[in-house]
Amino acid sequence: MTFLTGRHIDRRSFLKGFGATVALPYLDAMMPSGRGILQQDLGKTRLIAMEMSHGAAGCNVWGETQNLWAPAAVGSDFDLTPTSLLPLEPYRDTLTIVSNTDVRMAEAFSAEEVGGDHFRSTATFLTQAHPKQTEGSDVFVGTSLDQLFAQRFGQETPIPSMQLCIENINQAGGCAYGYTCVYTDSLSWASPTEPLPVIRDPRVAFELLFGAGATQEERRERRLASRSVLDAILGRISELEGNLGPGDRRRLDRYLTNVREIERRIAMVEARNMSGEARELPEAPAGVPDSFREHTELMFDLQALAFESDMTRVFSFKLSRDSSGRVFPESGSDLGFHPASHHGAVEEGILEFAKINTYHVSTLPYLLERLKGIQEGDGTLLDKTMIMYGSPMGDPNVHNHRRVPFLVMGGANGKLKGNRHVRAPDGTPLANVMLTLMHDLGLDDIESFGDSTGEFDLQRA
Question: Is the pTM of this model over 0.85?
Fold first, then answer.
């Protein structure tokens, strides 16, 4: 479907007005007449890299025998019933589970580093490099996978990459065991010495994506008047819709409805949190929901909209903070996250920790469904996205980094087949898997990553 005038819309079109800059989703009217669809843009893979702290119950020796994380069978005929991955059963066709890999770069290399596992782990996950022990500014670890991808393929979008988080990680200075807090706070590294800041507040992420007010005063004025960012561009929307075919008008309306709905939900969270009622997270900004699920769903919605409008193709998402004592009542456990992870190798305690793991995984189908529901060209955004989820820690009770939990979701433009459980030989670095995934992302010339020893066959039985 083209413009009724015969012209086509540029893929980088924006609707602008009163500080708002709203990028458009892909429309058929962006198809140049006689030149085929915009395969160059539509074929680009998106990346979401998520880290969850504290390993998993199934990475304990006994937990592994009970298949609390990875299923018993390898290949495609596996049963997720006993595992914490059961919530992903409806999406098994887009799921690749990789078990029995190690993140040895997070281990102590010297006596002085013993005990600092929590404070090395996050910085290690996407870099697969060993952080230099320091409490000063002379940090050094490695360039993270998401940033290697963003530096190569993220320069074509208005925002090369975005870094999001759920818990408060804005801590400066030293944490413990001789490590600066920047290591445990920073999942994404632009270089070995450049940790990237993260966004916790959905309002901040929304305004970055949609230019919701050029100045702080404009943003405050708009909120006080209860105006949507879309109110600033109503005239532009009407003008555009008059030049679109019916299919594109429906697609644009759905997209703008989602933008308005997310903005409304953020405003509701802010109103609730500023009402004077006691909060579960009293230190959190007003835009941060007290509910873990509500917070993650808002962040997932923002990621889906960012991909749909091609504002960015790269997200890292830190879902927890090491040593977090947060309680997740919906999980069925009343224990704090970190205390539950120190289960003492007692079977009852391991099963209690597994409840929390399962709850965390249960938030992922929301993202998968959102991406699956967005059509772009001849596929969905789920078909075109690579989603990593895992932890750099294995058995948290002993702070080891062996048999770490890791999985990949999405189609990555045909590079990931899904419905697969691959068990690695003992001693395999997770860096081997990440090296292979980088090649699937188009970083074919990278020959090694972290402590990798070679590629990893994701199709092996």
Answer: yes
